[in-house]
Amino acid sequence: MKLDYSRDMYEKTIFIHLHDPRRTPELKTLRQYDSWAVDYIDRLKEMLEVLNDYRFDLMERAQYLATAQSTLSIELHRRRTYYGKIEYYLQLVRTLPDGTSYIEQNTQYPGSDRHKAIADFKAACKSHPGAPTVMNIQKGKWER
Fold this sequence. Notes:
Layout: H1 27-67, E1 71-80, E2 86-95, E3 101-110, H2 114-127, E4 133-136
């Protein structure tokens, strides 16, 4: 069974309501509770199959991550915070062939350490020659 990860997630909720059999006076009601218990067991068996399929999907992804050739890019970004402060972010971003990416290293600098952020960016470029670089430290149009 292939799981449907719509909206990046598979979600299934099972509610189980068990009544105290010692408080049930009728045999007919106990039979009904037993049929519900059988239904609950069937649903839980289905969920076990789903979880095994999920584990298989996790294993496939782990194999892909272990063998895929990724590219490293070096990025320096300038951001103005909500409080008006300037911050610089030096990021080493790893991109996989399927287009997914993640930040491998993230260093934050206050606005007063602008020159240190730029120097560290240049040092990272030297330590990773040939890596694509992004240097986005200009003021935004709304800041001028």
